[in-house]
Amino acid sequence: MEDFWKSVQTIQAERGADYRAFSLFSATHWAELLGAAAVIFLCAVIYYRCREVTRHQILRAVFVLMLADEFMKQAVLLYTGQWNVTYLPLHLCSINIFVCWYDAIHQSRWSKEILYVAMAASSD
């Protein structure tokens, strides 16, 4: 837990660029992957069973949580002295927040297509 408030860049500066908390496809890695898959599956099942009105509320809540997460990240980085301009939400992963906002408000086929493409591209 000593590295909890540190960014990847800070940890790598302290321990070397090739430092990893656990190895790729170790038991810890598989446990995290399976846990994430289980949570995603559970959320998808719950979302699928909801009425349309509730789905819109869920989408808006997810957007608010994403926005809060981004603000919290920026605040922690500023508070701990680790912030720099590269943390602004202007790269593909963070720009999705704005597309999620548009989709939560307007629910268009276009915004869903953009989200799908952006998520697929940012996972590469």
Overview of the structural elements:
With 124 residues, the chain is mainly α. It has five helices and no strands. The two termini are 29 Å apart. The longest helix has 28 residues, at 52-79. The chain has helices at 8-15, 27-49, 52-79, 92-106, 109-122. It is globular, with a radius of gyration of 17 Å. α3 runs antiparallel to α4 and α4 packs antiparallel against α5 (109-122).
Cα gyration radius (Å) = 17 Å
Beta content: under 5%
> Strand tally, please?
0
Percent helix, as a range, is over 70%
Mean pLDDT: 83
Series of secondary-structure elements, N-terminal to C-terminal:
HHHHH
Helix count equals 5
Largest sheet: none
Shape field:
globular
User: In terms of per-residue confidence, which ranges show pLDDT below 50 for 5 or more consecutive residues?
Assistant: none
State the secondary-structure class. mainly alpha
Query: What's the end-to-end separation, in Å?
Result: 29 Å
